Predict the structure.
Amino acid sequence: MHGRTLPWRQPEVDGSFDPYKILVSEIMLQQTQVNRVIPKYQAFLEAFPNVKALAAAPLSAVLALWNGLGYNRRAKYLHEAAKQLAPLSEPWTVDELAACKGIGTNTAAAVVTYAYNQSIPFIETNIRTVFIHHFFKDAEVVSDKELTPLVAAALEREHSREWYWALMDYGSHLKVTVGNVSRMSKHYARQSKFHGSKRQLRGYILRVLIEKPHTRNELAQTNPDDRLEAVVADLLQEGLVMERYGRLFLGSTS
């Protein structure tokens, strides 16, 4: 078994790692498989190469580029985080990152670890898989509170970045060879069925609005779903869609 070569694991010319690029990858990888993330990650960085470029972009442009990854709230949270982080000097801290909506403590710790090679214990799905497989095979439910001391004790202090990469790859390997034992985690959330779901309808509405603004009636004509009004209301409340003069627009124009 060999480590995966992934674009967000590639250093800059000077050997450093860009925390912005790592943040983008971490948010994209939440609930989305690596093979789907890679082309979107590369296109995203071409459009928004640094945190200031993302902060200055209209949300509509960010959502349009995010299209196809799903869970579009992540794009809005990442956009808002960029506005919050852009004025800050580096290195970013766990507290600064975790203060951004949509970035939890584990994601913040992952960004800091990968960017600056700091030795911080954190938990994510593949890491859960490794430690549950080796230490809790007979358990029915395992909490992150039980796993964290083990992750901290096993942490390689001088090469934390590479250690976590190895853990991630090993966890991915275990999912294929022994199954997803992270289902035993107290924090495991099974994804709901996509076909016919509200998530699918949300994605449809956003895809249509990428092409051009629509009235509610126009949306209903193309997709006569009884849940349409409720989903539009949710998207408006979340700020993913805006309405002016009876027409729905993608995100914000500012």
Remarks:
- Residues 160-177 form the longest helix (18 residues).
- The chain has 13 helices and two strands.
- The chain has three domains: 7-116, 125-154+164-184, 198-250.
